[in-house]
């Protein structure tokens, strides 16, 4: 077979068509990330998503007045989703899985536009195999959505620059708005978007530059106008992320591993990405700005905004992957030369290597220890199996415990009564409920109480402090203690 024929096979239209380029990465993402979608329990942030999504819209608006307004579009959409598909762990996470599959397809299409079909397909498949993709495809939070929309906005920009039309610029403006409404930090990708605009106008007279750049500026401005109200309201709630620690050099150096989902996978991506920088000047500038602007800006403004946190920077993963895919094809060409099978084999070796190196993290991300949370699901299942009509339940220790167990007991029948609950969280416009100030009175005549606690020690009842502890000790004795991961369920029965 001649060299021309071999190259033709490498670029066979059947292998470079949009359904193949976009479809294979999307399907691989659904397969890999969908394994064990509901296997691990929900953790703290996902409990917040569930709680917000189950609120009525008036109650949700009241919550957003003081909390999480930047997640308003996500919570509103999840409210509609759960009304149809329910509140199980797989149902809550399925939107993220679908968004991540869409992101894989978009990464592949963007790679095709920047480098060509082989690089695009490689990028999409590489993206699907990353442990971090599986992690956040199985997360009831908006990060998968952010990744997909950031990639979509970049692709739509290139399409609009290639063949300008009013419809394409409107689509780009909508993508910019959707990206910002999904997560404000992702708007730093607009710095990268200036790169292809600069390329299009770099050799034009000044008047022509303004004419050619005006649609981009107008579309970007329109998108930002849509986002501006939420950005303003979000800035007034910045105290919510005050828990993020000031970054250290060690933390900065860990960022690639956190974004890839493991040290070994990150090392491979970094090496390939550095090689990929040599694959094309303008794509490298676009992707380099995408990769670096957000983290550098978050570092520089940390004292004001506290935004240097790897989850907030997940939208940079597609750029890393695209550079790595370009590097993979450079290596494949060096190894295989004009032999299409040898080049395909080299690409396959890289993909298999990433899959194998990522396997331990893939397994870990599907376990309940991924966030080292307490054993909420086991504790909830125990209470649901043992509870009888008229039982009460009390919480102590971990401040998010009431919401976590409420999720686990959402379908329990009978469900123990939260005897110390004075005002539900939704009535307070908060995630946290208010407890009874006179516990002895609120306990009423309940004869058995399930104390769910994260406190240690040999006597769990003794560790409950304040008036709540005094009331429980005066009325109840410990009948049995069930131990789960970092959490205990104590059966208390009336002593008289």
What would your notes on this structure say?
The structure is a single chain. The protein has 496 residues and is α/β, with parallel strands linked by helices. The protein is 65% helix and 7% strand. The protein has 24 helices and seven strands. The protein has helices at 3-10, 13-16, 18-34, 44-54, 57-64, 72-85, 89-114, 117-129, 131-137, 143-162, 166-182, 189-201, 206-235, 249-260, 263-276, 281-300, 302-305, 317-336, 340-364, 376-386, 401-408, 425-428, 439-442, 466-475, and strands spanning 392-396, 417-418, 421-423, 434-435, 448-453, 476-484, 487-494. The strands form two sheets. A five-stranded mixed β-sheet has the order 2-1-5-7-6. Helix 10 (143-162) runs parallel beside helix 12 and helix 12 packs antiparallel against helix 16. The protein is elongated, with a radius of gyration of 26 Å.
What descriptive keywords fit this protein?
496 residues; alpha/beta; 5-stranded mixed beta sheet; two-stranded antiparallel sheet; disordered N terminus
Net shape: elongated
The fraction of residues in strands falls at: 5-15%
Helix content: 55-70%
What is the rounded distance between the termini? Answer: 92 Å
Largest beta sheet: what is the strand line-up?
Answer: 2-1-5-7-6
- Strand element count: 7
Q: What is the number of helices?
A: 24
Low-confidence stretches: 1-10
- Rg result: 26 Å
SS-based structural class? alpha/beta
């Amino acid at each position: 077979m001649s060299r021309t024929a071999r190259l033709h096979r490498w670029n066979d239209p059947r292998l470079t068509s949009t359904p193949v380029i976009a479809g294979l990465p999307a399907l691989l993402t659904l397969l890999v990330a969908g394994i064990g979608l509901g296997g691990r329990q929900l953790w703290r942030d996902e409990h917040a998503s569930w709680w917000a999504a189950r609120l009525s819209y008036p109650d949700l608006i009241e919550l957003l007045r003081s909390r999480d307004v930047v997640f308003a579009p996500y919570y509103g959409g999840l409210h509609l989703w759960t009304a149809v598909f329910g509140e199980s762990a797989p149902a809550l996470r399925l939107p993220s899985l679908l968004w991540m599959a869409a992101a894989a397809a978009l990464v592949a299409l963007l790679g095709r536009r920047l480098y060509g079909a082989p690089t695009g397909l490689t990028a999409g498949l590489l993206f699907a195999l990353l442990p971090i993709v599986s992690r956040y495809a199985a997360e009831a939070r908006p990060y998968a959505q952010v990744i997909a929309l950031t990639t979509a906005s970049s692709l739509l920009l290139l399409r609009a620059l290639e063949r300008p039309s009013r419809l394409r610029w409107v689509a780009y403006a909508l993508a910019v708005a959707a990206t910002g409404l999904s997560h404000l930090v992702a708007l730093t990708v607009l710095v990268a978007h200036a790169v292809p605009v600069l390329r299009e106008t770099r050799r034009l007279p000044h008047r022509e530059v303004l004419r050619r750049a005006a649609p981009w500026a107008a579309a970007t401005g329109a998108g930002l106008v849509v986002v501006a109200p939420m950005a303003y309201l979000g800035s007034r709630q910045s105290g919510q992320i005050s828990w993020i620690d000031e970054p250290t050099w060690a933390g900065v150096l860990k960022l690639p591993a956190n974004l890839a989902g493991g040290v070994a996978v990150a090392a491979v991506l970094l090496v390939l990405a550095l090689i990929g920088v040599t694959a094309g000047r303008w794509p490298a500038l676009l992707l380099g700005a995408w990769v670096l602007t957000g983290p550098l800006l978050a570092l520089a403004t940390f004292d004001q905004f506290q935004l240097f946190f790897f989850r907030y920077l997940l939208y940079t993963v597609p750029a890393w992957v695209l550079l790595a895919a370009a590097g993979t094809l450079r290596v494949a060409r060096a190894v295989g030369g004009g032999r299409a099978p040898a080049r395909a084999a080299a690409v396959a070796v890289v993909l298999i290597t990433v899959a194998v190196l990522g396997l331990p993290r893939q397994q870990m991300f599907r376990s309940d220890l991924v966030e080292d949370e307490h054993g909420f699901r086991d504790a909830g299942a125990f209470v649901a199996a043992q509870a009888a009509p008229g039982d009460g339940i009390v919480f102590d220790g971990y401040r998010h415990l009431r919401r976590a167990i409420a999720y686990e007991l959402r379908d329990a029948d009978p469900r123990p009564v939260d005897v110390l609950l004075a005002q539900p969280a939704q009535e307070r416009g908060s995630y946290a409920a208010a407890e009874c100030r006179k516990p002895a009175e609120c306990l009423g005549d309940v004869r058995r109480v399930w104390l769910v606690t994260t406190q240690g020690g040999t006597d769990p009842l003794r560790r409950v402090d304040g008036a709540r502890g005094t009331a429980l000790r005066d009325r109840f004795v410990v009948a049995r203690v069930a131990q789960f991961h970092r959490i205990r369920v104590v059966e208390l029965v009336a002593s008289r």
